[in-house]
Amino acid sequence: MSQRLGRLAGFFLMTAVTLASGVLVSPLAVAGNVDTIRLWAAPDHSRLVFDLSSPASASVFQLDNPRRLVIDLADTELKASPSSIDLSGSAISSVRTGVREGNDLRVVLELSRAVEPRHFSLAPNAQYGDRFVVDLEYPGESAVEDPIDPIEAMIREQEIAAERAKTVAVAEGRDPVEAAPVVDTAQPHPKRDIIIAVDAGHGGEDPGAVGPSGTREKDVVLQMADRLARQINATSGFKAVMIRDGDYYVGLRQRTIIAREQKADFFVSIHADAFTSPRPHGSSVFALSQRGATSETAKWLAASENRSDLIGGVDGNLSLDDKDQVLRGVLLDLTMTATLNDSLTIGGEVLDRIGRLNDLHKPRVEQAGFVVLKSPDIPSLLVETGFISNPEEERRLRDGGYQDRMMNAVFGGLRAHFERNPPPASLLAWQRDQGRNTASNEYRIQPGDTLSAIAARHSVPLTQLKQVNELSGDVIRVGQVLRIPSS
Hints:
34% of the residues lie in helices and 23% in strands. The chain is built from eleven helices and 17 strands. The relative contact order is 0.11. Mean pLDDT is 83; it is low at 1-28, 179-186 and 304-319.
């Protein structure tokens, strides 16, 4: 009897375990949900984000006549309302949804233009849960709605090419001014604008830091970037290029690519710091660290092995294809060092002016490996305008008057530097040269020129040529304008 009871108890125990195991490994999975759908429209792309209650497999494909993009999410139910999505500024004219094969969700985007889609899933983070992201990129579109004038771009490209030629000559141990045939006729001064790339950090689904009162970093830095751009554009001889001018995200490396495409003389990224404690406060200015510059040089060398880029890359006149790996490294190192030195100099000017407006978190320009600072050929700064996690600084960062004063301090530092060191073809350089008390003609230096050759060609003593141009040595730069005294 006791044996039968033991066997019966064992049977019931095994049955219970089996049933329990069946519940744990049941093939009948619970369908996930699309809780919300969010859209951000940028000039060159749109981003659609599906907020999911759990990960979902998906397929994305295009259809023509009419243009459509189809998104299938497996075993997923729609809880969001597509009619609530603001489609303005995007390539999407309407959104349709339906159920496919019983449990799958199908979303159909009606498109007003050609797109190049890409998609990926994102794991949960501090702000969001599981997400499925669809980017619609617009072929041939610029990320900047108001690009610089083509003529100014051409002038700036000539300056860049001349600087690259000088860098190559230095790396190869040649005289940097002995490169090309002399051009006798001086061209009218271009008087181009100095281009400042203004980058508002974060954006779109990336809110950045959030203050105690709910202030989002992406919002206040966009407001400040817009104020800075308006100050720049209101100043003769300067022009601003906004990296983003709305609530959308731009990839970190894409930001520097946009600055390079727009031939920027300088790149400044606006942010608001944060910490887990509300106590830290003050503003900071960052330039690229030397270690970050070294690692970036290595990345550029690897990425540029089979394509034309950076030095001589735009017009192909100074291709690195015939240079060995060591020389490529020297060229990039020279470029990065010069760029970093300019960044630190300008950073000091900016920090000095910010310090008159707000406490400084650190008394000197800090250096770190921020991705947005890693443009080898464009001096760059990242400005942490204050700690949004500090209640007092959060309040000030929301204040329009304070934003104006902070951006005036940033631009004041940039302007002071460029007024002392204007690019040769810029309006500021022309104004500086016009202010010299010399009755003479102008001559703009061409590749291959030397001071002695210019003096001989215009029949003036070399010492007099140097005196009227306030030159203490024989170093001259391509694009520099010389005053030729009357003989």
